[in-house]
Design a protein that fits this description.
5-stranded antiparallel sheet, 32% strand, alpha+beta, Alpha-Beta Plaits, 33% helix, 21 strands
Length: 401
C-alpha cells in the first residue's frame, strides 16, 4: 500500500469439489495453481519426521490437464492417536499459520471420529488419516496455502458418492460416517457413483478451513488449478478445482473512516404477519447480520407487502440466506455488493448509581445502549432520558481521560 486511499486486499482460495475432494487432490490443485513444491517440501521438513517424499506429475482426467500430488511414505505402523499428532504439530518447526490450519483440520477429524466411535477425541485412533502419507497431505496442503499467501479459504458444495466403501473398519456406507459428520451444516451434492469421492481428509479441509461454502466469492482471479484423483472416471473429470483470487478485505482504513465491502440481501414478502416479520428480523440479527430492516411496499394487484433487507459480511451470506428462506418462506433472495463507509467506534461500560450501562462511543457521537438504560431507569425510578444523559456524560469523561 502506497497511501491510505488505496485498498487492502485478501487472497482467497475457492475450492470447487464437483467430483469430491481428498487431501492429495486438494494439494495437487494448489500445486497446479502455482504453489511452490520446494517451499512445501522444506516446510514439511519442519515436522521433524522422516520416511516420506513428495513430488508431482502432470496428468489428465477426462481430458482435463491436472496435477497429481505424489506422496511416498511406505511406513508399516500408522495407527496414531489424535493427541500424538497434536504433540507432533506443537513440537514442529512450522510457520504459525501452517501449524494452526493443520491443527484445526486434525482436530475436526478427531471430533468427527470420536462421535462416530463413541470415544473421547484424545483417544481416537487415526487409521488411514493417521498414516504418514495423510499427514504429508494435510500439512502439505496448509503449506501450499501459505506458499500462495492465502488469507481466506472458501468452497463450493461438496460432492459425495453412494454405495459402500471398504476401510480399516470394514465395509462402510458411502459417504463414510466421518465424512457425513464433518460435513454437517455444509452444502453437499450427491452423485450416483459408487466411489468415495470425498474422503475424511478432504471433508476436514473444507469443514475446518472454509469460511463460506457456496458460489465463488467476488474477486479478481489470479490463477486456478486442477488436482487429480487416483482414478480416471469415465463420465466425469475426477479432479478438485481451485481458484485463487484477490478481493478487497472486509475493513479498509482510509483517513479517519473505515470502508468495507458488504453484501445486501433483499426479498419481497407479501404473505407474512407482523409478528413473524419481527421474529425474522430478531433471528437474523442474532445470526450475525450487521443490520436488518423492513420497508412497506405495494406489490402486484395492490397487495401490501414488505421488502426485507439484510446487511452482511461475505462470510455470513450463505448462512443468512438459508436462514432467510427458512424464516420467511420466500422463494427468492437478491444479493448486491455494497460499500459501507463508517467511523471507528468502541464500547465502554459505565455505572449510573450502581447500574451498569454499555455506551457506544464514536468520533462524532456517544450513545447509551437503550436496553441497559431502560433496565436501569426501572430499577432507579428515573426517566430513561435522564439515565442515558448521565451514562453518556460518564462515557465521554472516561474516553477523554
Amino acid at each position: 500500500m502506497t497511501d491510505s486511499a488505496e485498498t487492502n486486499t485478501a487472497t482467497i482460495a475457492w475450492f470447487q469439489p464437483f467430483s469430491g475432494i481428498a487431501g492429495d487432490m486438494a494439494l495437487g490443485a494448489l500445486l497446479d495453481a502455482g504453489a511452490d513444491l520446494g517451499y512445501i517440501i522444506s516446510t514439511l521438513e519442519g515436522l521433524g519426521i522422516t520416511g516420506w517424499s513428495l513430488d508431482s506429475e502432470r496428468t489428465q482426467r477426462h481430458s482435463l490437464a491436472a496435477t497429481r500430488a505424489l506422496v511416498d511414505a511406505p511406513e508399516q505402523h500408522h495407527h496414531r492417536k489424535w493427541r500424538d499428532i497434536s504433540e507432533l504439530l506443537k513440537d514442529s518447526d512450522l510457520p504459525d499459520r501452517v501449524r494452526d490450519r493443520a491443527h484445526r483440520i486434525f482436530e475436526a477429524l478427531a471430533i468427527a471420529e470420536a462421535h462416530v466411535h463413541g470415544v473421547e477425541p484424545d483417544e481416537v485412533h487415526f487409521h488411514e488419516v493417521g498414516a504418514l502419507d495423510a499427514i504429508v497431505d494435510i500439512v502439505g496442503c496448509c503449506a501450499a496455502l501459505e506458499s500462495l499467501g492465502i488469507d481466506i479459504v472458501a468452497s463450493a458444495p461438496v460432492a459425495v458418492g453412494t454405495g459402500t466403501i471398504t476401510a480399516a473398519h470394514g465395509i462402510l456406507p458411502n459417504p463414510p460416517p466421518a465424512v457425513v459428520r464433518l460435513l454437517e451444516g455444509v452444502p453437499t451434492t450427491g452423485i450416483d457413483i459408487g466411489l468415495e469421492l470425498t474422503t475424511p481428509t478432504g471433508a476436514a479441509i473444507v469443514a475446518a478451513l472454509a469460511k463460506t461454502v457456496g458460489p465463488m466469492p467476488s474477486m479478481t482471479i489470479r490463477s486456478s488449478g486442477f488436482g487429480a484423483g487416483t482414478r480416471d472416471i469415465p463420465d466425469r473429470a475426477n479432479v478438485t478445482h481451485v481458484v485463487i483470487g484477490s478481493a478487497r478485505s472486509s475493513a479498509v482504513v482510509s483517513g479517519n473512516t473505515n470502508v468495507e465491502e458488504l453484501t445486501e440481501l433483499s426479498t419481497n414478502i407479501d404473505d407474512i404477519t407482523g409478528e413473524l416479520l419481527a421474529h425474522a428480523i430478531s433471528e437474523l440479527l442474532s445470526a450475525g447480520a450487521l443490520d436488518v430492516w423492513a420497508i412497506p411496499i405495494v406489490m402486484k394487484k395492490g397487495r401490501p407487502a414488505h421488502s426485507l433487507n439484510i446487511l452482511a459480511r461475505q462470510e455470513t451470506v450463505a448462512e443468512l440466506t438459508e436462514l432467510l428462506f427458512g424464516l420467511t418462506g420466500t422463494l427468492g433472495v437478491r444479493a448486491t455488493t455494497v460499500q459501507r463507509t463508517f467511523q471507528p467506534r468502541s464500547v465502554v461500560e459505565v455505572e449510573v448509581d450502581g447500574q451498569k450501562i454499555s455506551v457506544k462511543v464514536g468520533p462524532s457521537r456517544v450513545k447509551a445502549e437503550f436496553d441497559d438504560v431502560a433496565s436501569a431507569a426501572r430499577t432507579l425510578g428515573r426517566s430513561p432520558a435522564d439515565v442515558a444523559a448521565a451514562a453518556e456524560a460518564l462515557a465521554r469523561h472516561q474516553v477523554d481521560n
